[in-house]
């Protein structure tokens, strides 16, 4: 990993070295008091790494320290990668954003929408319009997650075996067919709801491209960007670099090792989750953020046009609303006030409502194990934070990281 490290004096890119150290001082406390096993943070500006710190243990029980080559489960930080894959195909004319998904996934030919009744006898009506590609990219399709536990449709997902994962033996195609048989939470386009939509989008990528999702990612994204440690599982010869997974547990004041869940990435998965299946390194994901920050290109490899990246990272919610007004008040990997949603990213539309000194147009997402990233085009800033704690709502890591990064900007 000699190619990944600090490569600019912070002062040369408008960052104060002493103020950057506040990031480390603050987050060290999380390790010292047992709330986190370890973490890694990268802050870059103008395409140069100005701050890169690791602290604590990648594996607490083994006594193995976090290193620059540590492999992390990035869960929902997979979603922006799947969204980029879809938009690469869109740029080739493979589909229009307004196209019905059923053109490629016929199981969505006649969706029905929940309107009442218990999970044992749900009342549904036909959808008033098709589920479109745009709906998948923006989480407005009416799909959901079983783990939300706030709506009858969430319960229906759990009854079919979908909570955090798919039932044993399901591949992606089978999972998508099962979801298509379940009623939508609302009419397509009517609301925003964090959901399996990006997994369905991953299946669309497979059908349109004629490649499995892992093959498409490897050939069209990871290879060109040099993301050599990113994939749907961690091979056996690399598992000595894999961070252990920890989780909050009932009755326990501090996180405990989540061995069974953590082991899922040590073998090829039965289904390829474009919504949350990848493992990666800070180096690899930094390169992905740089591609976006650089208008779709990195080191001569162009994935998207600058115009497409700008389009993806605008707020696509109707009437320019934020998630607080258009979304459902439930868990997602972002705050809702002042945040809209683009094609695969949360997008800041009002920093004051967001309670952060970030910029209008900053885009971001995070993962279930408390990982996070954001790109601020106005400040030419990208930040990646890695740790392994379930759930990501356990501590206010992301909001604290933002305030600590932005107070270090001094130009």
Short description:
With 411 residues, the chain is an alpha+beta fold. The chain is built from 13 helices and 17 strands.
List keywords for this structure.
8-stranded antiparallel β-sheet; 3-stranded mixed β-sheet; single chain; 411 residues
Task: Provide an overview of this structure.
- The chain has about 400 residues and is of the alpha+beta class.
- It has 2 domains: about 10-80 and about 215-405, 3-Layer(aba) Sandwich (Beta-lactamase); about 85-90 and about 95-210, no CATH class.
- It contains 13 helices and 17 strands.
- The chain has an 8-stranded antiparallel β-sheet. Strands 8-7-17 form a 3-stranded mixed β-sheet, with no helix packed on it. Strands 4-9 form a two-stranded antiparallel sheet.
- A hairpin with a 4-residue loop joins strand 12 and strand 13 (about 345-350).
- It is globular and about 60 Å long.
- The two termini are about 30 Å apart.
- The mean pLDDT is about 95.
């Amino acid at each position: 990993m000699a190619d990944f490290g600090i490569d600019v004096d912070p002062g040369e890119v408008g960052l104060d070295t002493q103020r950057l150290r506040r990031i480390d001082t603050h987050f060290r406390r999380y390790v010292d008091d047992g709330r986190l096993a370890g973490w890694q943070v990268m802050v870059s500006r103008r395409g140069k790494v100005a701050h890169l710190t690791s602290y604590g243990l990648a594996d607490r029980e083994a006594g193995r320290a976090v290193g620059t080559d540590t492999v992390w489960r990035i869960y929902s930080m997979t979603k922006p990668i799947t969204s980029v894959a879809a938009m690469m195909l869109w740029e080739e004319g493979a589909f229009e954003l307004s196209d019905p998904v059923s053109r490629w996934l016929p199981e969505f030919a006649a969706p029905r929408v929940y309107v009442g009744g218990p999970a044992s006898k749900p009342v549904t009506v036909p959808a008033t319009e098709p589920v479109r590609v745009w709906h998948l990219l923006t989480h407005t399709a009416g799909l959901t997650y079983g783990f939300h536990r706030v709506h009858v449709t969430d319960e229906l997902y759990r009854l079919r075996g979908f909570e955090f994962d798919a039932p044993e033996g399901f591949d992606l195609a089978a999972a998508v067919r099962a979801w298509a048989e379940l009623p939508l939470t609302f009419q397509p386009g009517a609301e925003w709801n964090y959901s399996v939509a990006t997994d369905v989008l991953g299946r669309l990528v497979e059908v349109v491209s004629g490649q499995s999702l892992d093959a498409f990612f490897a050939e069209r994204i990871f290879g060109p960007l040099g993301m050599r440690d990113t994939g749907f599982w961690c091979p056996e010869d690399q598992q000595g670099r894999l961070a252990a997974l920890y989780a909050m547990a009932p009755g326990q004041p501090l996180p405990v090792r989540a061995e069974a869940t953590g082991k899922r990435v040590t073998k090829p998965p039965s289904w390829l989750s474009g919504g949350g299946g990848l493992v990666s390194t800070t180096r690899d994901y930094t390169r992905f953020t740089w591609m976006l920050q650089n208008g779709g290109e990195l080191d001569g490899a162009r994935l998207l046009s600058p115009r497409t990246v700008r389009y993806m990272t605008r707020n696509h919610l109707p009437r320019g609303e934020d998630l607080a007004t258009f979304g459902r008040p439930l868990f997602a990997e972002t705050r809702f006030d002042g945040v809209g949603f683009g094609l695969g990213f949360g997008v800041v539309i009002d920093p004051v409502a967001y309670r952060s000194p970030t910029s209008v147009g900053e885009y971001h997402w995070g993962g279930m194990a408390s990982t996070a990233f954001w790109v601020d085009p106005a400040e030419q800033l990208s930040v990646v934070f890695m740790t392994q704690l379930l759930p990501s709502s356990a501590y206010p890591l992301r909001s604290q990281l933002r305030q600590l990064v932005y107070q270090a900007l001094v130009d």
